[in-house]
Design goal:
With about 300 residues, the protein is mostly helical. The chain has eleven helices and no strands. Helix 4 packs parallel to helix 7. The protein is elongated, with a radius of gyration of 23 Å.
Length: about 300
């Protein structure tokens, strides 16, 4: 091994040690402050609700209870009933699965595709970086909700359509964040050492660069999850989300508007669930950012 290779290898080991972080550090950081802890609790609660909700709901989401139209909240109907006599608590509980599942799937896809594109163009640079980065910028120039409405209005509202639209909207944002992080790592000593060892581009991207961009990627994933929840609910409110009789929270809010003066609780509970979930994800995201900044992983 030449002197240059030894120096590069030494730099790689040093920088790798500085870049390591553990799950224990993240958990300690999230649970050590009240707001991140609250956000973590909210997110975990809604995930559990999405998993076990149908088993604890007293009624099916589409079950109409005879003689129970617009019943206020009570010990029998915790969240009251709507204008058709459906139990709102059961509908909110059943709807948690969709409001969690769709954003979760889109976030995983956005992070996977966006991270791959961002690392590639950030590492390779040159004309590939210029062309792909400009294409990503052009997609970001269009307002997200407008583009979603146009696309879903064209292909029709469906779960697959919602997933495709959200992935197209948010993947460029993830790619830009990862590209910026990759540019900061490209000249690092351990990257140079990998090049001197003759490692392939794929190896360098996923074994050397990916660990370095994971903190920024984790924070961005939490943010995209929050935005995906809000967009999913917004599309449901506009009638472009999951179609009836599915208990989409956004659609529940829209349906409750016309009877708000008679049954305001039909709007309060689904709207409150949307707001609480988004606030929880944002608190979790902010907690992650603070943890990684304290550990020197984010600037």
């Amino acid at each position: 091994m030449t002197t240059l290779q030894k120096d590069a290898a030494t730099a790689r080991l040093a920088e790798t040690d500085r870049g390591q972080f553990s799950l224990r550090t993240i958990v300690r950081g999230l649970t050590g402050r009240p707001l991140p802890l609250l956000g973590t609790f909210i997110v975990v609660f809604f995930i559990l609700l999405a998993v076990i909700g149908p088993q604890i709901a007293p009624y099916r989401f589409d079950e109409i209870i005879r003689g129970a139209t617009r019943q206020p909240p009570s010990t029998t109907y915790w969240f009251g009933t709507d204008h058709l006599g459906r139990d709102i608590f059961s509908r909110v509980v059943w709807g948690a699965r969709e409001i969690i599942t769709i954003p979760l799937i889109t976030t995983i896809l956005c992070v996977t595709i966006g991270a791959t594109i961002g690392m590639f163009i950030g590492y390779v640079g040159g004309w590939a970086d210029e062309i792909i980065a400009r294409l990503l910028d052009s997609l970001l120039a269009i307002p997200a909700l407008v583009l979603a409405m146009v696309m879903l209005g064209t292909i029709g509202p469906s779960v697959a359509g919602i997933i495709i639209v959200i992935v197209l909207l948010y993947t460029p944002i993830v790619a830009r964040v990862v590209r910026s992080a990759t540019l900061n790592l490209r000249a690092s000593g351990y990257i140079e050492a990998a090049k001197l060892r003759g490692e392939s581009t794929a190896y360098i991207l996923f074994r050397e660069i990916l660990p370095g961009v994971l903190p920024a990627l984790a924070v961005e994933a939490a943010l995209r999850f929050s935005y995906a929840i809000f967009l999913t609910a917004s599309l449901g409110f506009l009638g472009l989300g999951v179609q009836p009789p599915s208990p989409d929270w956004g659609r529940m809010v829209n349906e409750a508007r016309s009877t708000f003066s008679l049954a305001p609780w039909a709007l309060w509970f689904p709207a409150g669930a949307i707001g609480i979930l988004i606030i929880g994800v944002n608190l979790l995201s902010d907690g992650l950012r603070r943890v990684f900044r304290r550990e020197g992983q984010l600037v």
